[in-house]
Amino acid sequence: MASKSTSRVENSALSAELAELLSVVEPGAIADLVIQRAFTHGATDVHMDSVPAGMRIRFRIDGLLHDIVPVPSDKASNIISRLKVLANMDITDRRLPQDGRISSTHIDGVDRDVRVGTMSTIYGERIVMRMMPDPSEFSDLQSLGMYEDQFGQVENLLKAPYGLVLVVGPVGAGKTTTLYNFVASLNKPDRSIVTIEDPVERRLPGAAQIQVDNKSGLTFPVALRGVLRQDPNVMCIGEIRDAETARIACRAATTGVLVLSTLHANDTSSAVDVLRQFGIPSMLIADSLRGVISQRLIHRICEESRNEFAPDETSRKLLQLPPDDASSKIVEGVPADCNFQTGYAGRTAIFETMIVGRNLREAINGDAPAFAILDAALADGMISLEESARRRVLDQTTSIEELKRIMVDSSMA
C-alpha cells in the first residue's frame, strides 16, 4: 500500500487561495473547489464543522487533520446546501443524520466518488466527506507494500479453491484497500465473484456487487444465503459484524467457496478469539480458516525533507542491532511546507501474515488461547507487525517513532 506521490501545495498557500476566493466566488463554487483540492492534495476526508463564527474546514491527510480555511457564517449555509444537493440529500432536514454520495466527480482525468454524511450539532450542521480513492491506485497485490516472503504467502492463500481468508486491524488500518486488491487479483472471466458490502466503496468490473440495505431487509446474512444458491467461486464480505454472518461465512468456506472478509481484531491470532466470541466452534474455525492478514498504516518520511543519522543506544536496542553497530543509518523527517510541517508525506502498510497450517490448525482445534496461537505462528516463521515496522525503519521508509507506536499498539493486544 505504498502511497503514490501526490501534488502537494503548502497548507498556507491553499488556505490563502480559498480565503481569497471566498470573497469573490459563489459559495456553491467554493464547495466544488474544496472537493477538487481535497483530491489534489491526497486527502482521505474533509471535515466541515459548524462553529459560532461560521464553518471550519479541515482536510485529513496521511491520517492527520489540518485546518484549511475558516468560512464566515453568511457563506457556510450555502456551501452545506450545495453539498447536500450534490449528494441527493434533503436540504430542508437539518436535524436528522443523512448519508449520501457524490458520484463521478471528474478530477485530473479520473472519475472519483465522494461519500457524504451530515449530523446536527449545537452550532449547526456538520458535514464529513470521505474521498474515495482512485480505482487504479492499487491495482495489483505488489502495490500493497508487502515484503516478498509475505507476498508469496498471500499469493498462495488466494490460489486456494476454498477456505476463509481474513484481513484484520482497527478502523483506518487500510483493510478495505487490501481486500479490494485481493478480489481484483482473483477477478478473472472463469470465476464467479460476488461481493456483499455496506456500502459498495469501489466498482469492480466483472464482479457482481451487492449493497446491503438493512431497511429493506437485505442484511449480510440474507444476502449471503442468496449468493450461496448462485454458484459463486469467490465471495467477498465487506465485514463480518455478527455471529450469523460469521457462521455462514465459515460454513461456505468449507463447502467449496473462497471467502474473503475483514474483521475488527487487533492482530492475526486474536481473530480466532473474535470468531469464537461469535459462537463459532473451534473445530469449524480450524476447518475453514486458511489465513489471517493483520495490518497497520505507518507514516512515510518525506523524501524531499529528511535527515539521516546513526541510531543512538536506545534506538539500536529497539531495532535489535548489535551494541557496537556503526554502519546502520536511519532517518527522520524535517518539517517543511512540502509535508504540511509534519516531516511525513504519505503512508504505507505493514503486515503480519498468519498461514493456518497443520500446527496452527491443531492449536485452534484444541481451543488454544490467542497468545498460544501467536507463539505457534511465530515459531512457524511468521513476521510480526513489530518486526515489519522494524524493517521499515531500517530501510529508511519510516521513523523510530512510528516503530515505538506500533510496539505500544502490540503491547495492548
Tell me what you see in this structure.
- By secondary structure, this protein is of the alpha/beta class.
- It has 14 helices and 15 strands.
- The chain has helices at residues 11-22, 27-40, 73-86, 148-159, 175-186, 220-228, 243-253, 268-277, 282-288, 313-318, 358-365, 370-379, 385-394, 400-411, and strands at 45-51, 54-61, 64-72, 98-107, 110-121, 124-131, 163-168, 193-197, 208-211, 234-237, 258-263, 289-301, 306-309, 330-333, 344-355.
- The strands form 3 sheets. It has a 7-stranded mixed beta sheet with strand order 9-8-10-11-7-12-15, sandwiched between helices.
- Helix 7 links the parallel strand 10 and strand 11.
User: What's the Cα radius of gyration?
Assistant: 23 Å
Largest sheet: number of strands, sense, barrel closure: 7 strands, mixed
End-to-end Cα distance: 24 Å
Number of strands: 15
Order of helices and strands: HHEEEHEEEHEHEEHEHEHHEEHEEHHHH
The percentage helix is 25-40%
Provide the structure class.
alpha/beta
The strand order across the widest sheet is 9-8-10-11-7-12-15
Low-confidence stretches: 1-9
Summed over residues and divided by their number, the pLDDT gives a mean of 89
Q: How many helices?
A: 14
Shape: globular
Beta percentage is 25-35%
